[in-house]
Amino acid sequence: MDLSAWVCPLPLRDSPNIVMGHGGGGAMSAELIEHLFLPSFGSAADAELGDSAVFDIGGVRLAFSTDSYVVKPMVFPGGTIGDLAVNGTVNDLAMAGAQPLVMSTAFILEEGTALTDIAGIAKALGRAAHVAGVRLVTGDTKVVDAGHGDGVFINTAGIGIVADGVDINPTRAQVGDVVIVSGDIGVHGVAVMSCREGLEFGTEVRSDCASLNGVVADMIATGVDIHVLRDPTRGGVAATLNEIARASNIGVALVERDLPIPADVRDACGLLGLDPLYVANEGKLIAFVPREDSDRILEAMRGNPLSAGAAVIGECVAEHRGMVVARTALGGNRVVDLPAGEQLPRIC
């Protein structure tokens, strides 16, 4: 069966100006990089386009990552933009199999923002760095005019060491691999949405924001050849799985009933007309590992409180290469496509 026939082509997104969807981690983001940034950068660009770059300097394998955080509001149930900045950068390094070591932090502050708010965010950032075991070694501060920012934006960069023999890369997924998620999905996105003006869901959902380098270290210690690790942030699980399917030229088959979606997340998404697969996460990872090694990986993950709910949600298949398809509760199939932009912006 040719499942590619199930997908209607998207209209050309021929916009002369930047729109919010360009920052959503979906198809519009990919087009911006492919058609504007890479041609502009020319031979200076590295076209691997991972969340972290892995390279060798003097016989030492290093991972390097950078990211920017513009979440609104700055403080949300379970976290702040400060600990989000640390955890997000640490996780990008960890998804390359690196042990994070050092970070930079650059603050862009809006004129008029209360110093007490900035202090609270800075303290949260420092606590998160301490928990993750990374040092904050350099940084910068800029102030923009009132009305030209949104309180606090944070840019970070991080460096970590990748051990010899570790080769974790989005291109390494293989037919026969199982797909594992480390716990409940959609929690962070719903937590942020829950405290925006006019959005009350009747229950407090707290962000899953956390550094996962300890979980990854436990997984690597098993000796299993982990093929792919990714944290499903912007665009959620759907965007992450589509990117891996296309990078590795394999199909991904999900089983919807196996997806760990908490009832309050499912209810909130139903109220807003959202699909939990597309909602951002900040404390979860997705792993692709050989089927024969999945029990060892699951045992290691479930021994860590941050991944105690680890579960197999699907597998890699030879059919519908480059696509993600989910088996529904009714026994049918649906294509889980790459989102054009993001369902709701400013989640991370």
From TrEMBL:
InterPro entries: HypE (IPR011854), PurM-like_C_dom (IPR010918), PurM-like_C_sf (IPR036676), PurM-like_N (IPR016188), PurM-like_N_sf (IPR036921). Residues 174-324 form the PurM-like C-terminal domain. Residues 51-162 form the PurM-like N-terminal domain. It comes from the Bacteria. SUPFAM superfamilies: PurM C-terminal domain-like, PurM N-terminal domain-like. GO terms for biological process: protein maturation. CDD domains: HypE. NCBIfam families: hypE (TIGR02124). Belongs to the HypE family. PANTHER family: CARBAMOYL DEHYDRATASE HYPE, HYDROGENASE ISOENZYMES FORMATION PROTEIN HYPE. This is Probable hydrogenase maturation protein HypE. The lineage of its organism: Bacteria, Bacillati, Actinomycetota, Actinomycetes, Mycobacteriales.
